[in-house]
Design goal:
Strand content: 5-15%
Distance between the termini: 58 Å
Largest sheet: 7 strands, mixed
Number of strands: 9
Number of helices: 15
Oligomer: single chain
Length: about 450
């Protein structure tokens, strides 16, 4: 357990003991139920992967986060790990992955079940609590296991881990597009609801007036009548200020939740158009405004994510969410440290021009893509051209593996979601490899490379 000292139990109100063993290890038979092993195809990709993943190691790692002698036994570690792999592989919510699990015998077999189950294995909220339990370090263990499984299946070659491509992208948060009028109205509404729950009497809650004013502000903005729209925005700001001052007068002792909401509402009330570190969401104040120079989307609201993938094969070795919108070059050092934690330190790292002036000083040789064909060695130029191969991988992370609109709460949710998205991408590729699809493509490419005489169909 020396390698997993960073996984420690988190303080919580209700403790759970270490989960019991999976039902597959119980050799007792049942006359009235058919075993899953007798009704599934043993050549299925999930069946092959279930024999490759080191479930005992994961159970030992995550078992250290449970209380040793208090509480009822927790949910099976293999079940929770399998559900998160399937969730991020197929781009499903917690509710959908649990509902689909009941209908799919291969998912149940992969989760460690011995008999076909007809009921939900857990409540979907248990997945949220389990993610909070393992945190960012536990998510890195799930990513690490996908690479180790790929090495066992020979889908990932050892030489591929020597060279990595590193780039940054934006992981957007699941929030509405922030405008001043919406922020004023939302902050006022949350404050009114909190005051009602705590029995704080307000002179006026402005629910009806604020709703009407927000409607007219949107209509005036759509009609390009900006003076009238700004007048409506000022009124919404005044409503927020009146509610803030009313709560301050009537409630001298405020609890932590109300005090935090009051702080966020005060920041929204005082912030100006050109201020830095603005609040863009009431329920997610950690959201930042990031501009990546895209023509179709000038501003994105979320956090920056640094991703690392192998130059050959496109296997993701790291995904790290960083807040504060740092310069890309300043994220390189931490990104390479994460790659070293997950598998090992690479020999070469290829980055784009956004990493000029990076602060990394280490054993990994960093190559900045300057596109100097005549001045770069041929052996290095061949790998430099593959630097852009990480771009379609980022597109797959966003479109198919839940990095487009992060729905997990807080800055910790941003970090966990980024790593699990990379793990889901690797797991999806492992499924295809186990099914034989990618293996056939790789054999065909190898045949073409050796013969040097095949032509791509449809290409002149």
């Amino acid at each position: 357990m020396q390698d997993f000292k960073y996984l420690t139990p988190k303080p919580c109100k209700f403790y759970s003991m270490k989960p019991k063993q999976t039902p597959q290890k119980d050799r007792q038979r049942d006359l009235f139920r058919a075993a899953l092993s007798s009704i599934i195809d043993p050549s299925h990709g999930l069946v092959k992967l279930s024999k490759v993943v080191e479930w005992d190691r994961l159970d030992e790692v995550f078992g250290s986060t449970y209380c040793p002698d208090n509480g009822r036994p927790g949910v099976s570690t293999r079940l929770m790990v399998a559900l998160h792999y399937l969730k991020y592989t197929h781009n499903l919510s917690d509710e959908d992955v649990v509902a689909t699990w009941v209908e799919n015998p291969y998912w149940q077999y992969f989760s460690g079940m011995k008999w076909f189950e007809h009921e939900l294995p857990i409540d979907p909220s248990s997945m949220t609590r389990w993610r909070k339990r393992i945190g960012e370090a536990g998510a890195e263990e799930l990513l690490k296991e996908t690479i180790k499984a790929g090495l066992k299946l020979k889908a990932v070659k050892a030489f591929q881990l020597k060279r990595v491509n590193i780039d940054t992208t934006v992981q957007e948060k699941e929030i509405r597009f922030p405008t001043d009028a919406r922020l004023y109205d939302r902050a006022r509404q949350r404050l009114v609801d909190f005051a009602k729950e705590r029995g704080i009497k307000l002179r006026q809650n402005y629910n009806r007036k604020s709703k009407q004013m927000l409607y007219w502000q949107s209509r005036y903005s759509h009609a390009r009548q900006m003076k009238r729209a700004k007048a409506c925005t000022r009124k919404l700001r005044n409503y927020l200020g009146r509610v803030l001052r009313d709560i301050e007068r009537n409630c001298a002792k405020r609890d932590d939740q109300l005090q935090s909401l009051m702080h966020i509402g005060t920041r929204i009330y005082h912030q100006q158009q050109k201020d830095k570190n603005k609040v863009y969401s009431v329920h997610a104040p950690e959201v930042e405004c990031i501009s990546k120079g895209k023509a179709h989307k000038r501003y994105e609201f979320g956090c920056k994510v640094s991703v690392a993938a192998t130059s050959k094969g496109g296997w993701f070795l790291g995904a790290m969410a960083v807040h504060g919108n740092p310069y890309d070059g300043h994220t390189l050092k931490d990104a390479l440290k994460q790659v070293k934690r997950v598998i090992r330190e690479p020999e070469h790292a290829f980055v784009d021009m956004g990493y000029r002036g990076h602060n990394y000083r280490g054993d990994t040789e960093v190559h900045v893509d300057k596109r100097r064909r005549g001045r770069t060695a041929k052996s290095l130029w061949r790998w430099m051209k593959r630097r852009a191969a990480i771009e379609p991988g980022i597109g797959h992370l966003k479109r198919e593996h839940r990095m487009d609109r992060n729905r997990l709460k807080g800055a910790e949710g941003d970090r966990v979601n980024a790593i699990l998205s990379a793990a889901g991408m690797n797991f999806c590729k492992l499924l295809k490899w186990a099914a034989g699809f990618l293996r056939q493509i790789s054999l065909w490419l190898l045949f073409c490379q050796r013969t040097r005489s095949c032509q791509i169909p449809g290409k002149i």
